[in-house]
Design goal:
The complex is a heterodimer of chains A (about 525) and B (about 130).
Chain A lengths: L2 H11 L6 E4 L5 E4 L1 H7 L3 H4 L10 H17 L3 E8 L5 E15 L2 E12 L1 H23 L2 E6 L5 E4 L2 H6 L3 H4 L10 H17 L3 E8 L5 E12 L5 E10 L1 H83 L6 H33 L7 E3 L1 H15 L4 E5 L7 E3 L1 H17 L6 E9 L2 E7 L7 H4 L21 H11 L3 E7 L3 E9 L12
Parallel strand pairs in A: 12-14
Antiparallel strand pairs in A: 1-2, 1-5, 3-4, 4-5, 6-7, 6-10, 8-9, 9-10, 11-13, 14-15, 15-17, 16-17
Helix pairs in contact in A: 9-10, 10-14, 11-12, 12-14
Chain B lengths: L2 E5 L3 H13 L3 E5 L2 H11 L3 E5 L7 H11 L8 E5 L4 H9 L4 E4 L4 H24 L1
Parallel strand pairs in B: 1-2, 1-3, 3-4, 4-5
The chains are: A alpha+beta (about 525), B alpha/beta (about 130).
Amino acid sequence: MPEHAHDLIATMFKGARHPIFIKGEDYSYLFLSDQACKLTGVPFEELIGRTDYDFLPQSEADSVRAMDKHILETGEERLFEEEITSQDGTVHTLVTHKRRVTVPLGGRLTNLVIVEIDDVTELRNAETVLRASEEHHRSLIELHPQTPWVANARGEVIEIGPEWEQVSGRSVAAARGHGWADSVYPGDLFRVTGSWAEAVATKTRLDMEYRLLNGDGEYRWFRCRAAPRLDASGEVSRWYGLLEDVHDRQTAFEALIASERSLRQHRDDLEKIVETRTAEVKEKNSELARLLEQEREVNALQRRFVAMVSHEFRTPLTIIDAAAQRLARVKETPTQAYLVEKSMQIKGSVARMVELMESILAAGRLQTGVIEINRKSCSLAEIVQSCVKHRQEVCTSHRIHADLSGLPAETHLDPRAMERVFGNLLSNAIKYAPRAPDIYVRGWTDHETVHVSVRDTGIGIDEEDLARLFEPYFRAQSAAGIAGTGIGLNIVREIIGMHGGQISVASEVGQGSTFTVSLPLNNQNPEIREAA
Amino acid sequence: MIKVLCIDDEADIRSLLVEELHDAGLETIEACNGREGLDKILTTWPDIVICDVSMPVMTGHEMLAEIQLNHPEFSNTPIIMLTAMTDRENTLAGLQAGADDYLTKPVDLDLLMAKISGCIMRLENNRKMGRGL
């Protein structure tokens, strides 16, 4: 090779970035670039004019020679990749490009083989890593029940994974654009399209769950996530999405919620039962307490009654006893007047005791319900008048003023019961008016009702006691210190009630009391017998 | 002469007591309830009081309380209660209120007169001592 041509090639290719070899028609090396020398590890001077047989094994040199020969004869190019182990032991991936060039050399056209080599080791390594990573992700995706999809900036699906066909039983093509929405459960559709439109408009990530119809006509829960990929100007270039089957998880979750709800319901029910039972127990307790209180009150009333009865018996007994003691002490012959006085004291006391005993018996009969009313044709005016007379006879401290002209001539009543009624009212009037000597008795008729009132101007009754005045054993506060059993007015009310009538009282403390008995004129069938 | 005040709302009981006291040569005054009895104590200064418990207007116990509270100068006057109330509580209440003795009805006149004699003896001894001073 002439010096000037050699210099030209050397100048052109010596410092090239890739290893370049040039072989002549006799296959000997005409030129090697610096990189080519470095690659072979042999100095330039030792390679020039040598052939591959000089430093490659026979078989390798044969195959290189065969290729070079083919290229020189046919002019075809060769591009191939091979791995070689360099002298420092590292493996390099080389891409070799061989071609034939024809240059005027030494006055004639000479064919040369130009070998250019690219070291693509790093590129290939990067590709391997990338491929491995891709496979890794693909297998991950394939393992998960996920369907990848891609949508354009307007939110129209342009690609969807083939899994879609299993998910929906519809073709991949059918999902494109907004076709996928046809598989969404109608109840979720509004929410799904709304959220997707909003994500597209605001370029924000989407993550939501909804139901999709599968090929078997069943709805399954899916989680759909999507994220936008933005270009340099901040516009969405693509949406990348994943559809994940979460049905089993969702149904398990729902079952959990349902079970929790039922548990809570059960607890609430239990609490309600406990509440109800507690309320029942409370109610029963308060009912028991009320009954106990009532019982206590009745007991207290009865105790007071027994004390009063004892007191009431002892007073006439004291008179009789004292009179007897006095008679026994008389030393001389007693005067007739003295004897009469003592016998009157004894008789009066005996009468009191009989009256007391009878009213107690009547009260007992009232309580056991065996009292009877025997109506007869009689005159109420006469009965009342007779009571007034008897009372006036034994009472010198009071004057009883009676006006009974307003009463009818004939009535149908139980005369003995009526005697008890008016005897009691008159005795009360005297007893509770110790310093007001005038008692007024008046009778009148009003339509079909007869009325008799007994009025005193005595101590009167407290307003709060009026309502309970006719209850058995009850005694008004104003009656403190005045002997009485508390059963008289109760008997009066019962007798009047059995006659179909009523008794009322008007009173003022310190002014006196008026008791008014009202009895119907009709309903006087003498056959009527009533029991309390 | 010894003056005895009889307070009872029962006229018959009063008259029988008065008879017995007259026989013993004592002077008597009568009242028919606690209020009237208190008035008589304040106006007639009785030496001894015989008093019922259960009476209208003012009971025997109320009268005792009134004396202790507002008329302490009469708190030394012997007061014998006569009552038809036989329960223990009543007796205790009367004794605590300042009664000197408590007799239940029907009353044993001999027992009553013995108590009155005792009261008279003490009264006369007190008077002698008072003169001696």
